[in-house]
Design a protein that fits this description.
277 residues; mainly beta; OB fold (Dihydrolipoamide Acetyltransferase, E2P); 4 domains; 5-stranded antiparallel β-sheet; 3 helices; 18 strands; 39% strand
């Protein structure tokens, strides 16, 4: 069956004046308009295309790459709004519709929003929603402490940054554990720090425990080398100074210099730390 809102690998069945007709193994076919037809092809070849509904609600395929696919999240730009909702640029000719009922707050043209795309069962067309929490659940977690996970930055709060974990669950990174700028919709790796009562998930942007020591120690070494073997930091330095200079917590810094000191790679003095040549 040809899946709307997804990539499909289909067979080239026949050519017509308007484009190629592609088909699946079940006898379904779909048009690939002339503008997307490859220069070289033969009847019987297979081609991977994205399938959706065109302006007249007809199934159509394209070789363009959409910015979002079915059952996924992405940060999208609002191209225009109307009396029925908002229309977002998702990289295709027909814009992605977000009805008012799927807007967490009223969308404004020109602004960017994190949205989830899904298939509307009544119309069989792709629809967007900025009410992203309804597509996430922590009831049955598929993650474990210390596990590396994929994150999407979803919301900024007073205590930290809410993230989407593996496009399935909700998590939180506390403000005092963030050492670089984060942007809405940004993607990066993270680590499950703790699973609290009620399946609330605390996330770290750095590896947990012992796994964090080696890269953090290397970061201190790199900073020392860039600064002629000296940093005016030590175990009594203000945490904000450490964060500003090295982009890490004081706890991580103390662990790092402890390892480097034991390895006889640096000296800790009253004025700071010195690299041993």
């Amino acid at each position: 069956m040809i899946q709307i809102g997804e990539y499909n690998t289909l067979e080239i069945l026949r050519e017509t004046s308007v484009g190629l007709f592609l088909g699946d193994e079940e006898g379904n076919d779909i048009l690939l308009p002339n503008k997307y037809v490859p220069n070289d092809y033969e009847i019987g070849d297979t081609i991977t295309v994205f399938c959706y509904l065109d302006h007249e609600e007809r199934p159509v395929s394209t070789t363009l790459t959409p910015k979002i696919t079915k059952n996924s999240f992405a940060l999208l730009h609002v191209a225009e709004t109307s009396g029925i909702g908002a229309f977002l640029d998702w990289g295709l000719e027909k814009q992605l519709f977000v009805p008012f009922k799927e807007q967490a707050r009223k969308m404004e043209a020109g602004k960017w929003y994190l949205v989830y795309a899904f298939l509307d069962e009544k119309t069989n067309r792709m629809v967007g929603s900025s009410k992203t929490n309804q597509f996430l659940s922590n009831e049955e977690l598929t993650i474990t402490p210390d596990e590396e996970v994929d994150l999407i930055i979803s919301r900024f709060t007073d205590i930290g940054v809410e993230v989407i974990i593996n496009e399935k669950h909700k998590g939180l990174v506390y403000n005092n554990e963030i050492f670089h700028d984060l942007k809405l919709g940004g993607r990066q790796k993270g680590y499950v720090k703790k699973i609290r009562e009620g399946n609330k998930v605390d996330i770290s942007l750095q590896p947990i425990g012992y796994k964090n020591l080696e890269p953090v120690s290397q970061k201190v070494m790199d900073a020392l080398k860039r600064n002629n073997g000296f940093l005016g930091l030590h175990d009594k330095s203000d945490p904000e100074d450490i964060k500003a200079i090295l982009g890490m917590s004081k706890k991580s810094f103390k662990k790092a210099i402890g390892i480097l000191y034991k390895n006889r790679q640096l000296l800790i003095k009253d004025d700071g730390i010195h690299l041993i040549s």
